[in-house]
Amino acid sequence: MLEAKLNTGRGEEDPSGQGDAEHGSSEAWPAPTIANRIDATVALPGSKSLMGRELVMAALAEGPGTLHAPLHSRDTQLMVDALRALGTTIDELPNPANQFGPDLRVTPAAELTGSTSIACGLAGTVMRFVPAVAALALGPTAFDGDPYARNRPMRPVLEALRELGADISDEGRGALPFTVHGTGGLKGGRVEVDASLSSQFVSGLLLAAPRFENGVHVVHTGERLPSLPHIEMTLEALRARGVDADSPALGEWRVAPGPIQARDLTIEPDLSNAAPFLAAALATGGTVSVPRWPAETTQVGDHLRELLPQFGATAEHRDGLLTVTGHGRLRGVNLHLPEAGELSPTMVGLAALAAHGTGQGDGEASEITGIGHTRHHETDRIAALVAEINGLGGHAEELEDGIAVYPATLQGGL
User: Fold this and answer.
1) What are the pLDDT digits (tens) for 275-289?
2) CB of 389 within 8 A of CB of 356?
């Protein structure tokens, strides 16, 4: 069994992985090639999205808990370091049954303490989930990150926290760096947030809300809301810990004040990180299987079961095993992915293969839309994907909220 060691750390809503890679290298990476069809089973590490949420809730819970099969990545380490800086104890527990590393035992602090600094790297989960936790601590907590992280939008969540009673100084930037002056508690209540650029603005408020004096009632004011499933994931994770959390209306979410139950739980595998491996089955006309694929999940990666067949593959889920098989030439597609933007790099890559032809008009065009919010991730993903496809001889163009890929003959490149 192959191991998908995608442990460089990912920015959300960004499980596909580019979000938290270490600083770039000038060394060229030789892409793997294969002469035959792939026939493989790939084991995946834990979900980045679930990992960030469970770490925050475990740190705010009423007692210790253990996270089994956690993701070990740059994102995870940044989150662990941030929570430790605020007083949480997080210990590694050896677990030979987990091929990706030790389990994590999380013991909440009797009292969260500030007077510290937190490095966010490029991790959206750290820069947007932890400020609400820091507001519950005593003392100032300074946040900063990698240079590009200072360009990532933060104003909506910072303004929302201020409305809920937090004292935050950012010199008007609405971005990193900023300092949260914790007072040991937060009033909470109703707050309006424009989450058009990131659903993390909402999740960051909901996760800590059980510890707010009045809980929280978040109302989205923007025209669109990307990555809605990630908010559903947050609500479900809260409810699994005994929290009263729901969505009373479209674009509204409510969390009541109360204890967060301690839990021992197993992190689901990161389904979005399955995308490049499953795509290899389509690229080679082979078969790739992924074990421990849940029958029901809030992970966006589960959409792969529906998306890959549109390119001409078959996908079968049986007894916890998802198997995807490619069947020759890929078909062009028209995909609208406002809730699954994190899958767009792989979908665009497959679209480029579907468009690849011999010059005799045998490639098929594709359009992938609804992903305009990915321009505000760790990089402008739309611009980056178009540039890289065209650099390989393809023909891709930027749309307002997506990418169009037209028939062209691909070639090797750098």
Assistant:
1) 999 999 999 999 999
2) no
Residue of 13, 268, 339, 342 marked active site: 342
Contact indicator for 53, 41 with CB cutoff of 8 Å = no
Handedness of CA 127, 133, 134, 135 (dihedral sign): positive
Q: Which has the closest alpha carbon to 286: 39, 41, 43? A: 39
Length of the chain: 414
Q: What is the pTM of this model?
A: 0.87
Known catalytic membership, residue 342:
yes
CA distance 390 to 343: 20
269 beta partners: 46
Name every residue whose Cβ is closer than 8 Å to that of residue 353 and which is 6 or more positions away in sequence: 282, 283, 330, 410
* Residue 60 shares a structural domain with residue 204: yes
Query: Of 265, 280, 308, which residue sits at a domain end?
Result: 265
On the 0-12 / 13-18 / 19+ scale of CB atoms within 10 A, 22 is exposed
Query: Looking at 210, 238, 265, which one is the last position of a domain?
Result: 265
CB-based burial label for 261 (10 Å; 0-12, 13-18, 19+): middle
pLDDT digits (tens, 9 = 90+) for 21-67: 334 456 888 888 888 999 999 999 999 999 999 999 999 999 999 99
Total number of domains constituting the chain: 2
Domain limits at 122?
48-265
Query: Is the same domain home to 224 and 321?
Result: no
What CATH number is given to the structural domain containing 74? 3.65.10.10
Kindly provide the residue ranges of all beta strands, DSSP E only, lying in 125-279, ordered along the sequence. Answer: 138-144, 168-169, 178-183, 189-193, 216-220, 245-249, 252-255, 265-266
Shared domain check, 208 and 306? no
